Amino acid sequence: MSASANYFRPEVLSKIAGLELRARRVVEGFVSGLHKSPYKGFSVEFADHRQYVPGDDVRHLDWRAYAKTDRLLIKEYEVETNLRTHIVLDCSGSMAYPEHDTGRMTKWDYAATLAACLAHLLLHQQDGVGLTLFDNAIRSQLPVSANRASLVGFIKHLEAARPDQATDTKMVFQHLAEQLPRRGLLVLISDLLTDFDDIINGFQRFRFSQHDLLVMHVLDADELEFPFTDQTLFDAMEGLNIEVRTDPQSLRRSYLEAVQSFISRLRGSCLNHGIDYVLLSTADPLDVALTGYLASRMNRQRSTV
Q1: Secondary structure percentages of the chain, helix, strand, coil, to 5
Q2: pLDDT for 20-39, tens place per residue?
């Protein structure tokens, strides 16, 4: 196995302290393995304005707009808007599993690394990328930018997040569907451990707003396989103060059936609403997620031709 391929493995990535380094190593290896870039054809026609963020090229500031609005606005061109992707990342308490140091990545570590990898890849392809972190509210946001310097802020927002609050997708998804400007690709990365109807209603709102939606459903290997054998204390992670000590072997069959039923319903609902769905285990190499993303994007491009 090559050195770059090693960085696709979660157990290797967990030993790299810097999130930016993790993402860069994965994407460098991944991009070098691509035979041909599928993203060609840019123009330089003016497209829109967006809010200035530190790191943007000041040469693209619209001083006329500043004189009228007293706001620093950046001119965007079609070269910067080949694809506008907004990554919506779950930073709720359940994403911190496993809480104790196990020598492997938590769901949050995996999801944050995946988000950073996607940002690297998009900027490498001269696409625009933005970020929203949420739990029971929107915790942090960055506007879509195609400037590579914006990656610094992207990484800082990820590194500053602390997954420790409850999840409330109902209000968050409703707000985001109304707030995110312009039609684009929205990539949701979450364990989706919340009310099923709230999830689907949120997805429908995104589609009604004409956003393309890619759902990356991240679960820990324990949640998918339930490998527990001894008496185990199960503790709610989102402030419910619920602890249950039980014999896992007596629960395993019914638990796995419930999880598979949830996943099947979710996948089926996404299919019915024209939403791309990718199930990921934290045991999956990161190139699995990146390949799933690229496949969904190319399918989307072909469908619009």
Answers
A1: 45, 20, 35
A2: 777 777 877 776 665 444 44
